Amino acid sequence: MKSLSQLLSPLMVEEIIGSDDKIITDVVSDSRKVTTGSLFVAVRGTTVDGHSFIPLLQYSGVAAIVCEEFPEFIESSITYIKVSDSAVALGYLASEWWDNPSRKLNLVGVTGTNGKTTTATLIYEMARLMGYKAGLLSTVCNYVEDEAIPTNQTTPDPLTINALLHRMVEAGCDYASMEVSSHAAHQHRIAGLHFAGGVFSNLTRDHLDYHKTVEAYLAAKKSFFDGLPSTAFALTNIDDKVGEVIVQNTKARKYTYSLRSRADFTGRIIESRLDGTTMSFNGRDVEVLFTGKFNAYNLTAVYGVSILLGWPLEEVLVGMSRLVPVAGRFQAFHSPKGYTAIVDYAHTPDAVVNVLQAIREVIGNRGSIITVVGAGGNRDKGKRPIMAREAALRSDRLILTSDNPRFEEPGDILRDMEEGLDIEGRKKSLSIVDRREAIRAAAAFAQPGDVILIAGKGHEDYQEIKGVKHHFDDREVVKEVFACES
């Protein structure tokens, strides 16, 4: 429990009706969770406005309500606090409620279209390899040291974020890393957090169903760096066309990383294989267990963060060689028949291109590439034909299939993807709605030396159809197919 006056101390309060001399039992933004003594924050969401629930809370026992506009009826037992932006206020209230845990950790945020999960996870892994206790907030899973905590969002709500960071502090963690999605930045879910550093990976087309324009998408990403304090570092990929723009207004100390230009932290690919790569970091050679240029960028970012956090160079280089790939990110499985299946989360045109280029760089003309890919329903439709076109250009055979159709008809999604195929693309492709059957078909086509790319779902163990999540795991299906081949 905390006093209301203490909780309100970091806020820019515009007006208050009632007393701030109250004890608050919890902070909530979901009206269904209100209990006696609660502080309710009315946030304007994308589908629901929390202000609409204020009249229903008059006799709920709620102690105080934070809002952007006062209700018509004022209940004398409730304190009403007016702020300019409830979403921002929620972030600061959540931090204050949980004793500002981000200020007790070295918290590093990672943003960008592709590479967030891998980079954030590897920073967490590297911290642990350095002998520190660490935590992670990511798309795949949240971790407090060894304890895995399931997640269903790239960046959770502020109350969940701070509760998890508090658990990390209680567990003795020194470091934490987290993915910062564009949605989270735009919706102020990271408001009130204190970051030791931020990383920008890249910017390509994604989430335009939400942001509408690439410019708005960029602005959301940039806002994360605009909010970093002068004590933090901002590490950006200058090989990306907006790499310098994204940090131009930050107060943080600016650093760069690159695979092809002069930068503070440079990575170079010396030799690539399906099971790893020989790389150099600022001129020092290291064998890493990752493949592809996109992973080389991720690793160079991790190297840069490690040095900026003050970890010893020689130990960092050893740590780089010990890092292992994230589940569902270029995860390779070798068939008894002599071909390789790679499961990857690539679900944007750029990500698909990166993975396919990585595979071609390794196998050259010694084998064929068979790609199985779909596109999510109720999301940016504009990227569907682009994904199909880019996949067809870089594959010897293409199978279009379901991803997470959500509330759309899978056949309609596939027809949207087919629109991106030219005559040559159509000749080498077929559409199979059932994802399991699509993977089996790819395996039937594969010959020794070939590579099957199964893209789009990666670590996910479900398919979302008509609002229901059905168990489905690409990796399990691959293993089932291999078992039949043995």
Automatic annotation (TrEMBL):
Its EC number is 6.3.2.13. GO terms for cellular component: cytoplasm. ATP binds at G112, T113, N114, G115, K116, T117, T118. Residues 25-96 form the Mur ligase N-terminal catalytic domain. Gene3D superfamilies: Mur ligase, C-terminal domain, Mur-like, catalytic domain, MurE/MurF, N-terminal domain. It catalyses: UDP-N-acetyl-alpha-D-muramoyl-L-alanyl-D-glutamate + meso-2,6-diaminopimelate + ATP = UDP-N-acetyl-alpha-D-muramoyl-L-alanyl-gamma-D-glutamyl-meso-2,6-diaminopimelate + ADP + phosphate + H(+). Carboxylation is probably crucial for Mg(2+) binding and, consequently, for the gamma-phosphate positioning of ATP. A motif (Meso-diaminopimelate recognition motif) lies at residues 403-406. It holds the Pfam family Mur_ligase_M. Pathway: Cell wall biogenesis; peptidoglycan biosynthesis. This is UDP-N-acetylmuramoyl-L-alanyl-D-glutamate--2,6-diaminopimelate ligase. The modification N6-carboxylysine is found at K221. Meso-2,6-diaminopimelate binds at R379, D403, N404, P405, R406, G456, E460. GO terms for molecular function: ATP binding; magnesium ion binding; UDP-N-acetylmuramoylalanyl-D-glutamate-2,6-diaminopimelate ligase activity. Its cofactor is Mg(2+). It is found in: Cytoplasm. It comes from Muribaculum gordoncarteri. Transmembrane segments: none annotated. UDP-N-acetyl-alpha-D-muramoyl-L-alanyl-D-glutamate binds at S31, Q153, T154, T155, S181, Q187, R189. InterPro entries: Mur-like_cat_sf, Mur_ligase_C, Mur_ligase_C_dom_sf, Mur_ligase_cen, Mur_ligase_N, MurE/MurF_N, UDP-N-AcMur-Glu-dNH2Pim_ligase. Belongs to the MurCDEF family. MurE subfamily. One of its GO terms (biological process) is regulation of cell shape. Keywords: ATP-binding, Cell cycle, Cell division, Cell shape, Cell wall biogenesis/degradation, Cytoplasm, Ligase, Magnesium, Nucleotide-binding, Peptidoglycan synthesis. Catalyzes the addition of meso-diaminopimelic acid to the nucleotide precursor UDP-N-acetylmuramoyl-L-alanyl-D-glutamate (UMAG) in the biosynthesis of bacterial cell-wall peptidoglycan.
